[in-house]
């Protein structure tokens, strides 16, 4: 398996944290999708994809509908996607994706954590070369799926030629995970839906291009920094180029 999948397997269970925080973050993503494309999932591919992710994360239907309704309200806050990036302790690169309605508050929160751990918050784009920005789709594998043929078709949409195949421990279904060009998110989603695949989740991620080794003590410090960042409601995801711990 490639670098992307090594990284994914080591981080997928840590990415969202506690359930309440997960629902808050998904609610913000619903808000952005609704404001951009309307409240009807059948006419809004991005909202449709987020709802699939909500279901995968066991977000109750009432919560989903309430988030859609709230996003349609005139008094609702306008969330912006703002990335922050810099170096944490021991030279580890850290990328923080946020959704915020108050950038002054968010940058102050993020900066406070970098300062506490003797890190340096850089300018936007300064570390983008250290992370590949990808869209990620996980969908159920059909019995007659020819993966070689499928991937060849998807390559035209900027999808990588490597894929991850595993069994969902909760449902027992065979699932495929693919990575692609973020700009092709809508096209990839439409292709999968037109081919009759049931999409389980669709999101964006950042995969480090060069993983760095750390000692157990260094890992503990960096993990604490990441946890502090993830405690903020505005923070959606935190990525590092720290090499995953061996199982």
UniProtKB/TrEMBL annotation:
<keyword id="KW-0238">DNA-binding</keyword>
<feature type="domain" description="TACO1/YebC-like N-terminal">
    <location>
        <begin position="4"/>
        <end position="74"/>
    </location>
</feature>
<dbReference type="InterPro" id="IPR049083">
    <property type="entry name" value="TACO1_YebC_N"/>
</dbReference>
<dbReference type="GO" id="GO:0005829">
    <property type="term" value="C:cytosol"/>
</dbReference>
<feature type="domain" description="TACO1/YebC-like second and third">
    <location>
        <begin position="79"/>
        <end position="242"/>
    </location>
</feature>
<dbReference type="InterPro" id="IPR048300">
    <property type="entry name" value="TACO1_YebC-like_2nd/3rd_dom"/>
</dbReference>
<dbReference type="InterPro" id="IPR002876">
    <property type="entry name" value="Transcrip_reg_TACO1-like"/>
</dbReference>
<dbReference type="InterPro" id="IPR029072">
    <property type="entry name" value="YebC-like"/>
</dbReference>
<dbReference type="InterPro" id="IPR017856">
    <property type="entry name" value="Integrase-like_N"/>
</dbReference>
<protein>
    <recommendedName>
        <fullName>Probable transcriptional regulatory protein PRLR5076_16280</fullName>
    </recommendedName>
</protein>
<comment type="similarity">
    <text>Belongs to the TACO1 family.</text>
</comment>
<keyword id="KW-0963">Cytoplasm</keyword>
<dbReference type="Pfam" id="PF20772">
    <property type="entry name" value="TACO1_YebC_N"/>
</dbReference>
<keyword id="KW-0804">Transcription</keyword>
<dbReference type="InterPro" id="IPR026564">
    <property type="entry name" value="Transcrip_reg_TACO1-like_dom3"/>
</dbReference>
<keyword id="KW-0805">Transcription regulation</keyword>
<dbReference type="GO" id="GO:0006355">
    <property type="term" value="P:regulation of DNA-templated transcription"/>
</dbReference>
<dbReference type="GO" id="GO:0003677">
    <property type="term" value="F:DNA binding"/>
</dbReference>
<dbReference type="Pfam" id="PF01709">
    <property type="entry name" value="Transcrip_reg"/>
</dbReference>
